[in-house]
């Protein structure tokens, strides 16, 4: 088990649509190419006919995909902005995350901790206690820029670095995040 002082937490942040999730997918690919085990959730956009129609949740271990949120003008489901979230998929997603944490992967991915978790205590918030314990060697969490301080408050004492993804950094950020996460690993 990793101690809180040795645990590394990379916060990937940026504005909506700048490529945080894409950068995270590239970080996972870099880690896997070096033989590291990655687990957790990745949440890419669901695109149909060139339009974003929702957000998928992807289990990084098994590859299973479920539609987590859909773009809808209707007032159905747990809403955040223009998205209606599926509560049943959150149940599944939290199980995926808690199973991943229990398995102690080389890298845990949580895409994303946002207002639903930090302001409402919903969504993927069950993973926050495990992250705060610092029992994982490395974790990568996507978080909106304006929520970084709120998340840091919930995860005190962890060795944390924040990486901003924007139009200028989205190509170089994945390698920088990977290098920081794994720089102390002698097995690289």
Query: For the terminal residues, how far apart are their CA atoms?
Result: 19 Å
Fraction in beta strands? 25-35%
CATH top level of the domain at 8-43 and 56-62 and 95-182? Alpha Beta
Instruction: Give the name of the CATH architecture of the domain at 8-43 and 56-62 and 95-182.
Output: 3-Layer(aba) Sandwich
Q: What Rg do the Cα atoms give?
A: 16 Å
Helix content: 25-40%
**Average pLDDT level:** 90
Overall spatial form: globular
Structure annotation, total helices: 6
Going by helix content, strand content and strand pairing, the class is alpha/beta
Give the helices and strands as they follow along the chain: EHEEEEEEHEHHEHEH
Q: Give a quick account of the main beta sheet: strands, pairing sense, barrel closure.
A: 10 strands, mixed
Model regions low in confidence, pLDDT < 50 over at least 5 residues: none
CATH T-level topology of the domain at 8-43 and 56-62 and 95-182: Rossmann fold
Topology, number of strands: 10
Superfamily (CATH H level) name of the domain at 8-43 and 56-62 and 95-182: P-loop containing nucleotide triphosphate hydrolases
Summed up, what is this model?
With 188 residues, this protein is an alpha/beta fold. The protein has helices spanning 20-33, 87-103, 115-118, 126-133, 148-154, 173-182; strands at residues 8-14, 38-42, 45-48, 51-59, 65-71, 78-80, 83-85, 107-113, 138-144, 159-164. It has six helices and ten strands.
Write a structural description.
- Helix content is 32%, strand content 31%.
- It is of the alpha/beta class and 188 residues long.
- The chain has a domain at 8-43 and 56-62 and 95-182: Rossmann fold (3-Layer(aba) Sandwich), CATH 3.40.50.
- Strands 1, 2, 3, 4, 5, 6, 7, 8, 9 and 10 form a ten-stranded mixed sheet that branches.
- Strand 4 and strand 5 (65-71) form a beta hairpin.
- The longest helix is centred in the middle third of the chain and has 17 residues, at 87-103.
């Amino acid at each position: 088990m990793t101690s809180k002082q040795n645990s590394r937490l990379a916060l990937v942040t940026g504005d909506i649509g700048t490529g945080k999730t894409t950068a995270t997918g590239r970080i996972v690919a870099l880690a896997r190419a070096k033989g590291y085990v990655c687990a957790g959730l990745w949440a890419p956009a669901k695109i149909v006919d060139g339009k974003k129609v929702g957000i998928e949740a992807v289990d990084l271990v098994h590859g299973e995909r479920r539609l987590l949120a859909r773009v809808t003008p209707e007032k159905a489901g747990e809403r955040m902005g223009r998205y209606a979230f599926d509560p049943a998929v959150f149940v599944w997603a939290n199980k995926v995350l808690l199973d991943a944490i229990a398995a102690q992967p080389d890298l845990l991915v949580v895409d994303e901790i946002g207002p639903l978790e930090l302001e409402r205590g919903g969504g993927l918030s069950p993973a926050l206690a495990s992250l705060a314990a610092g029992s994982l060697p490395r974790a990568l969490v996507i978080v909106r820029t304006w929520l970084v301080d709120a998340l840091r408050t919930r995860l005190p004492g962890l060795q944390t670095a924040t990486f901003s993804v924007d139009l200028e950094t989205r190509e170089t950020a994945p390698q920088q995040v990977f290098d920081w996460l794994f720089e102390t690993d002698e097995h690289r």
